[in-house]
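Final report, closing paragraph on structural work. Over the funding period we assembled a curated collection of sequence-structure pairs, and we close with a single example.
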Amino acid sequence: MNKKILVTGATGFIGSSLVRRLASGEDEVFILVRKSSDLTPLSDVLPKVNLVYGDITDSASLDAALRGIDLVYHSAGLTYMGDKKNALLYKINVDGTRNILRASLSAGVKRFVHVSSITAVGIAFDKKPVNESVIWNFESISLEYARTKHLSEVEVAEAVKKGLDCVIVNPAFVFGAGDINFNAGRIIKDIYNKRLPFYPLGGICVVDVEIVSQAIISAMERGKTGERYILGGENVSYKQLADTISRITGAPKVNFPLPFWTAKILKSALDLYKNKNRISKLFNMSMFRVASHFLYFDSAKAVRELNMRYESHEHSITNAYEWYRDRNML
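Its predicted structure, as stored:
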């Protein structure tokens, strides 16, 4: 029998990839959108999905939206690496998650997949990739986004205690086709346009959006209740990542390493510089502090239990670059 599925955050990068995949199946797909939502990322699949108006920060709007829904994919959230939107980060990522969990419990939803983040897992301080069992240690670099994603998982654990069947997935740094707002893709654009003359000394775990959306559906089908799954791929230093982007896009190599303490001095100088648009928006202190650490992850559990695919980071960078290039977005 066909199921009714609700997706939050459907217009986002991961959410739109997920909706596209779900819409090609037999189940009935509903997407939670606001009246002001830009539906451009879903233009090709809108005829196959049902729009439901509501907002995760408006608890009252969710009860009607969830009536008759069997499965919920909660991928809505605010991704912001700075300290100017702390209240909004908490309102969307923590309160919003609590609201949708409560409404799902009330509506008798059968299963709920919460799309979290690897910042809710932790940092690999010794460069040794961490797995799902690590104790959250991100507070050491004081990033409100990471704190709110961690607290959203605390809300999920509470909902599981109350009887909601939930699974958590933690996507790593997601590249690929369809990143219309230049989330991870910003680094491709900025290296291509020579706006990033230096690289931070840390590293990241790279994964393709198609692998992530496929694994999220697998988590719904076969993930274990209350468990979380890191959805990652290859762990690469920013130097390796920059070299790959230069090679694939034909941009000049980024040759200058920039330690965090030097970055702080340089940022103060650049703030006095009139033509700031010449330097990447990625160069803010919150982001650079994170990028000076190693966010290396072990995705073996998702490979083993969710049958998640593995591709090289070159694969994802190529997919993203070609998608941007074909649409003249660079």
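The two ends are 45 Å apart (CA to CA). Residues 10 and 213 are 12 Å apart (CA to CA). We thank the funder for supporting this effort.
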